[in-house]
Amino acid sequence: CVIKHQPESINLLIGAVDRALTNGKTTVLLADSDAASRSELAGILRRKRISVCEVASAADALQVLDSGEAVDLVVTDLDLSDMSGAALLAEVERRRGDGAVPVIGLSDSGDRRAGARFLEAGGTDFIQKPFLEAEFNGRIAQAAGVQKRLQTLQRQAASDYLTDLYNRRHFFVAGPRLVEQCLRRGEPTAIAVLDIDHFKRLNDTYGHEIGDIVLKHVAKRLSVLVGEDHLLARLGGEEFGILFNGCDVRRAFAFCDALRLELAKSRIVADDEELTITVSIGLATIETSEAFENYLHAADQFLYMAKHAGRNRVIS
Ligand code: GH3
Ligand code: MG
Ligand code: MG
Ligand code: MG
Predict the structure, then answer these.
(1) Does position 291 have pLDDT exceeding 80, yes or no?
(2) Any idea which residues bear 4-aspartylphosphate here (predicted)?
(3) pLDDT grade, residue 98 (50/70/90)?
(4) Using a 6 Å cutoff on CB, does residue 308 contact ligand 1?
(5) What is the mean pLDDT of the segment spanning 51-76?
(6) Secondary structure E strands in the chain
(7) Looking at residue 24, what is its pLDDT?
(8) Is 196 in the pocket of ligand 1 (CB under 6 A)?
(9) pLDDT at 2 over 60
(10) How close is the Cα of 311 to the center of ligand 3, in Å?
(11) Which run of H or E residues covers position 129?
(12) Is residue 135 annotated as part of the catalytic site, yes or no?
């Protein structure tokens, strides 16, 4: 595996909801300081079409996790050269959240208590060496299956059913963490609330179903234009939130204004109708650590001003 260096990436921050994790095949991070044992285990996993990232130490394992690499499952020998399995487990949980990534321990030590201690510390499963290949495969498949179902549920809990964007709940979970990361880097950032103008009128004129098509269209355009670097969510109704992953207010303003123009330009085809919409955007800067609601409230007030000033504009 390649270690990408993007420790502050939004994917890492979103963690278990990382889209890359949920639709690809299973990726196992395999830690074993014994080269022969490691290559044997990797071979067994690869024969099951599991993609394997091999590391010889706990330090390397943590570097992979810190890089934001998609890891579905950790398989580790309990006696790594630089750390015990239980200590590695604690570090994995510190990085990805409690129980977010299953960790399976292996050991060839005669001391059965090592496995028990690992399970007590929260390990997902323990396999004593030597093992039957079928047993190893069965335990891996079991843990990977539970993990995939968990990821599916987490993704559903974080996404908006109509538009498939992140939902308000996820915005409030991931938002404060993203702000904290930006401020820790010493970067200011900004939050925008975007609201479709006169959407009620559009619903009243063309019907709720056409309204839904318009919402889906706007969501799709936004997700392309905003991209993966920033946090985008449907906050409710015809209202969307964008939390920038570090951005000064001038750039954020230019970005929002470009968004506004782009959305106004796009022709939305629904049934036999060709519709256009405009949006108003309130943009607030984030320079100091405050309650997340305060940032959103500030952006909302600018949105309110944009509406009163005649709509189809950005105010910050
Ligand atoms: P303004 O320019 O001031 O924002 O006016 P508006 O009409 O857009 O705002 P208002 O808040 O009065 O109306 C929002 C409308 O959005 C009312 C509601 O029926 C509609 N709406 C909310 N959620 C949905 C949805 O999921 N689908 C559809 N089709 N309409 C929705
Ligand atoms: Mg060993
Ligand atoms: Mg509106
Ligand atoms: Mg609204």
Answers:
(1) yes
(2) 77
(3) confident
(4) no
(5) 96
(6) 27-31, 51-55, 73-77, 103-107, 125-128, 166-167, 189-196, 231-236, 239-243, 268-270, 273-275, 279-286, 314-315
(7) 60
(8) yes
(9) no
(10) 9
(11) none
(12) no
Q: Angle 305-169-279 (CA atoms, 0-180°, nearest 5)?
A: 30
Can you tell me which atom of ligand 1 is nearest the CA of 214? 29
Does residue 77 have a pLDDT over 50? yes
Q: Which residue from 69, 51, 58 is spatially nearest to 3, judged by alpha carbons?
A: 69
- Give the position of tokens 């810190």: 66
User: What is the per-residue pLDDT for 293?
Assistant: 97
Tell me which of 40-44, 79-83, 267-271 is least confident.
Answer: 267-271
pTM metric for this prediction: 0.80
Q: Locate tokens 């900004």: which residue?
A: 190
Beta strands in 117-188 (DSSP E): 125-128, 166-167
Q: Which of 212, 238, 300 maximizes ligand 1 atoms within 8 Å of its Cβ, making it the mutation to test the pocket?
A: 238
Whole-number pLDDT of residue 10: 42
Residues, the chain: 316
- State if residue 198 touches ligand 1 by the CB under 6 angstroms criterion: yes
Å from CA of 126 to ligand 2 middle: 14
Choose among 223, 153, 152, 162: nearest CA to 194: 223
| 3-state DSSP assignment of residue 29 | strand
- Please determine, for residue 32, whether its predicted confidence score (pLDDT) is greater than 60: yes
250: Cβ contacts below 8 Å, ≥ 6 apart: none
Tokens of 195: 């609201």
Q: Round the average pLDDT of the chain to a whole number and report it.
A: 92
Q: Which of 303, 294, 279 is nearest to 192 (CA)?
A: 303
